[in-house]
Amino acid sequence: MILADRAAENAEAPDEKGAPPPHWSELLHLRQTWGVIAARGLTDPVWFMIADWFAIYLASKGFSLAETAAGFWVPFLASDLGNFFGGGLSSHLIRRGWPVGRARKALIAGGAFGVLALVPAAFLSDFRSLVACFAIATFSYAAMSTMALSLPADLFQNRAVASVSGMSGTGAGLGTIGATYLIGLVADRFSFTPILLVSSVIPLLAALCVLALVRNTAVSGRGLVKVI
C-alpha cells in the first residue's frame, strides 16, 4: 500500500505530460536543485585532483618512475569497483524497503567519510600504504558520485531531469576549473599536504548539503519534484 501511494505521488501528473521543460530560474528556486548541484560541484574537483595529480604527487614523495607506474592504476581500479558497489548496494537497500532518498543519501554520507583516507595519505611515506589510502578514497568517492548522478532522475519529473543534470554538470565543471588552478598554485608555493587535507573534507561538506537540501518539502509530489 505504501509503495502504491508513493508511485502515485511520483507519477507524472496529467498536466505535466507534454509540458515544456521548466525555465532554469524556476529550478533554481527549489532547494532540491541546489542539493544536486552541490553533490557534483563539490565532489568532481576531488576526483580530477586525484586523476590529474596523483602521479605528480607520487613523484614529489620521491618514488621512482617504476614505482609510480606500478601503483598509479590502483586508485582507478578502485573507483571502478566503487561505481558498481554504490549502485548495487543502493539498489539492494531499496529492494529491502528503504525509500530511494534514504538509500542514496546513506551511500553519499558513507562515501564522504571514506574520502577521509586522503588525510593519512598526506603524511605517509610508505608506498603501499599511500596507494592503499588513495584507493580507499577513490572507491568511496565513486560510490558517492554514482548516487549524485542518480539524484536528478530520483528527484525530478522527466521534463526537468536534463536541465537539472546540466546544471549539476556546469557546477562540476566550474568547480574543477577553479580547483585545478588553485591546486597548481598551492603545490608550487607550498606542498600537496594542504591540498589533500582540503580534498578529504570537501566531500563531507557536499554530503551535508545533500542531507540538508535533498528532502521532501511542500512541493514534493505536486509538480516538478518527486517524493523521495
Class from helix and strand fractions: mainly alpha
Oligomeric description of these chains = single chain
Q: Mean pLDDT across all residues, rounded?
A: 89
Give the distance, in angstroms, between the N- and C-terminal Cα atoms: 16 Å
Give the strand tally.
Answer: 0
Whole-angstrom Rg: 19 Å
| CATH homologous superfamily grouping | MFS general substrate transporter like domains
Q: Could you give a short account of the major beta sheet?
A: none
Order of helices and strands: HHHHHHHHHHH
- Known CATH architecture: Up-down Bundle
Fraction of helical residues: over 70%
The residue ranges in which pLDDT falls below 50 over 5 or more consecutive positions are: 1-9
CATH class categorisation: Mainly Alpha
Shape: elongated
Strand-residue proportion: under 5%
Under CATH, the topology can be stated as: Growth Hormone, Chain: A
Number of helices: 11
Domains, number: 1
